[in-house]
Amino acid sequence: MAFKDTKGSAFVVGQVWGYAGANNYLLDQVRQRKDFVASVQAVRALSIKWPKCIDKLIEEKANGAAVINTLHDEVPGLLPINPEGSKEARAHAASQYVHAGNVWLPHPSTAPWVLDLIEELATFPGSAFKDQVDTLSQWLLYRHGDGASLLQRMTKL
Q1: For the chain, what are the domain ranges?
Q2: The pTM is what?
């Protein structure tokens, strides 16, 4: 959740994930530069579009805490998270699920936005922005257990 929607500001990224067994499926994504009001509207819109989505992870940085506070009585399942380590370390810790073939992305013909994600994944960590990769890795670490413990194990290798 960024503070501004200016040209140089970070993107606000919201992803909707489904899973079956060991597999994780990216179902939807919103990625735009947004201010506080637009971020609140985006969380509302994704929650309406995906009513069966239970856990809604919101990074408690920048506007995250304010978004949670604003929507607390309206949108169920908002969970504040404070990820440990750098974006690169989190991506490294979550990469085992990608390498194992347990992460599935939609086809660009049905989700053209996935091309930007693939580009960011392919150039990470050298990509100009890392927000999509970070959102993906935070989901994987959340879904598959304690991300902090996993990150600690991976950084000791």
Answers
A1: 12-151
A2: 0.86
* CATH code reported for the domain at 12-151: 3.30.420.240
pLDDT tens, residue by residue, 37-71:
999 999 999 999 999 999 999 988 778 899 999 99
In the 3-class helix/strand/coil scheme, how is the chain assigned residue by residue? CCCCCCCCCCCEEEEEEEEECCEEEEEEEEEECCCHHHHHHHHHHHHHHCCCCCCEEEECCCCHHHHHHHHCCCCCCEEEECCCCCHHHHHHHHHHHHHCCCEECCCCCCCCCHHHHHHHHHHCCCCCCCHHHHHHHHHHHHHCCCHHHHHHHHHCC
Q: What is the pLDDT of residues 7-44, one digit of tens each?
A: 667 789 999 999 999 999 999 999 998 888 999 999 99
